[in-house]
Fold this sequence. Notes:
One of its GO terms (molecular function) is electron transfer activity. The protein is mostly helical. It has one domain: Cytochrome c/b562 (Four Helix Bundle (Hemerythrin (Met), subunit A)). Helices cover 68% and strands 0% of the residues. It is built from five helices and no strands. The protein has helices at residues 2-16, 31-55, 62-83, 102-122, 129-147. The radius of gyration is 15 Å and the shape is elongated. Residues 18-19, 33, 36-37, 40-41, 43-44, 47, 72, 79, 92-94, 105, 108-109, 112, 136, 139-140, 143-144, 147-148 line the site of heme C (HEC).
Amino acid sequence: MIRTLAAGAAIAMTLAILPATMPRAAEPTDPQVVARTDAMKTIGRNMRVLGDMAKGSAAFDAAAAQEAAAAVAAEAAAIPALFEDPAQDPASESRPVIWEQYDDFTAKAADLERAASGAASQITAAADLGPAMGAIGATCKACHSTYRE
Ligand code: HEC
């Protein structure tokens, strides 16, 4: 019961940070900024695959869930290179503090990579989705709260 509640809360929290319906003033045009927001969109899309299964709006499919988590891990591994150039764009949501403490920023990317690759090897049943999303979602939030507008 407690585990179920905790997993439900973790799913709700993770879904809340997926800005699927968040209005956005403009899309970035700077190629470097487009590359990093595309990576984040891919991460978001794959998290939604897990979220849909967790909510029951998609049937549980262990291989597809593992693939989605592995895709998140692969994008996370690319974050340090994608953000290295402090390119700016009026539509970017990156805070300049990223480049003042880049080591901490990339450590947070490594936390995501670890959580997602752990999930990729651990999700074998629908009951694993909630804890996996909780673990991954905590790392999204840890980075966004400091580094994203
Ligand atoms: C290491 C830091 C970091 C981690 C970890 C991280 N993000 Fe992000 N994310 C950012 C930053 C910075 C931006 C803003 C990028 C910009 O606009 O320049 C962003 C933007 C986004 C966007 C908006 C993309 C767009 O359309 O512009 C989504 C969606 C997103 N992140 C989802 C996630 C999810 C889901 C996770 C966890 C599975 C996650 N992020 C983990 C730093 C991170």
